[in-house]
TrEMBL record:
Residues 59-285 form the Radical SAM core domain. Pfam families: BATS, Radical_SAM. [4Fe-4S] cluster binds at residues 74, 78, 81. This is Biotin synthase. SMART domains: BATS, Elp3. Transmembrane segments: none annotated. [2Fe-2S] cluster binds at residues 118, 150, 210, 280. InterPro entries: Aldolase_TIM (IPR013785), BATS_dom (IPR010722), Biotin_synth/BioAB (IPR002684), Biotin_synthase (IPR024177), Elp3/MiaA/NifB-like_rSAM (IPR006638), rSAM (IPR007197), rSAM_sf (IPR058240). The keyword Zinc does not apply. One of its GO terms (biological process) is biotin biosynthetic process. Homodimer. One of its GO terms (molecular function) is biotin synthase activity. Catalyzes the conversion of dethiobiotin (DTB) to biotin by the insertion of a sulfur atom into dethiobiotin via a radical-based mechanism.
Length: 335
């Protein structure tokens, strides 16, 4: 069923959800209808999207804890990033943290109820010393705290991906960020194809792929839809959706004219496109969803708890209260 604009009513979204629940895939045109729907349709979109979310994930929420293991010092020119070589933002700059720091953060992640510990470095890709540090710390964290490990280390080759799998990394994060068409407006020091190739190495190594994007970088609705379909077709298991925080000192300073309703429609569209994938509300949710943050969990089933790489997040206690108020429950790691 392909719908056109004159056919759009508030019952349209439930019809689309029913099709998805029956095993059909929505089209790119239908995804655009969700993304560009009138704001007054948001309650109906979320209600329909919740039926898909509930079918695959019930009322559970997975918590993820982000650890910046190496900050700043990045040779890439990603225009959104405060750690890039073209950024003048005042961010901490340090090389790979020592074992004790990484273990202390893992303990904090476990205490906050996180299922996944996300180990992130600022780099084009890991050097040998950084690879060795990850290989040493991952088994220790998993044994002591039972956390799943997601590594975000930049571009990877096949050998590096195989080594991460061998040391116990569960998944690797490497975001597509936007569409292939729009990518050159976001970064020029590597390509969209480079990012796709890293994900293919991760998939071939037998790890889960974590990859999503950023909304608010002057992309068109078609770019957001294209990214969603690319992620689905790559078989990405976990999709973090960020909302640009336009950090002073970066090339994208002053961008991101987002509204809460626009963010909610984007989250819902990804749920319709990738119904059985972990969908995570990520950076910028506090800034752009604001008082409507809880509504995002009617379609997303995952979120970060605590701070992000160089920006502050909502207090963990407030996040847990939000989940409890919704009548949802936190998924605990069973590894």
């Amino acid at each position: 069923m392909t719908l056109t604009a004159p056919q759009i009513g508030i019952d349209t979204y439930q019809k689309l959800a029913n099709n998805v629940l029956n095993g059909q895939s929505i089209t790119r045109e239908e995804a655009l209808l969700i993304l560009d729907a009138p704001d007054e349709h948001v309650p109906a979109i979320l209600a329909a999207g919740f039926e898909i979310r509930k079918h695959h994930f019930g009322r559970t929420v997975q918590l993820n804890f982000l650890m910046s293991a190496k900050s700043g010092l990045c040779p890439e020119d990603c225009h959104y990033c405060s750690q890039s070589k073209v950024s003048e933002a005042p961010v901490p700059k340090y090389n790979m943290l020592k074992r004790d720091d990484l273990m202390k953060a893992a303990e904090q992640a476990a205490e906050q109820g996180a299922k996944t510990y996300c180990l992130v470095i600022s780099a084009r890709g890991p050097n040998e010393r950084e690879m060795a540090a990850v290989e040493a710390i991952v088994p220790e964290i998993k044994e002591k705290y039972g956390l799943d490990i997601c590594a975000c280390l930049g571009l990877l080759n096949k050998e590096q991906a195989d080594r991460l799998k061998a040391c116990g990394v569960n998944r690797v994060n490497h975001n597509l960020n936007t569409s292939e068409t729009h990518y050159a407006e976001v970064c020029t020091t590597h390509t969209y194809a480079d990012r796709v190739q890293t994900l293919k190495h991760v998939r071939a190594a037998g790890m889960e792929m974590c990859s999503g994007g950023i909304i608010g970088m002057d992309e068109r609705s078609e770019d957001v839809v294209s990214m969603a379909f690319d992620l689905r077709e790559l078989g990405v298991q976990s999709i973090p959706l960020n909302f640009l925080e336009s950090i002073d000192g970066t090339p994208f300073e002053g961008k991101a004219a987002l509204t809460p309703n626009k963010c909610l429609k984007a989250l819902a569209m990804f749920r319709f496109v990738a119904p059985d994938r972990e969908l995570r509300i990520s950076g910028g949710r506090e800034v752009h969803l604001r008082s409507l943050q809880p509504l995002g969990l009617y379609v997303a089933n995952s979120m970060f708890i605590g701070d992000y790489l160089t920006t502050k997040g909502q207090a963990p206690d407030a996040d847990r209260q939000m989940i409890e108020d919704l009548g949802f429950e936190v998924t605990i790691s069973t590894d």
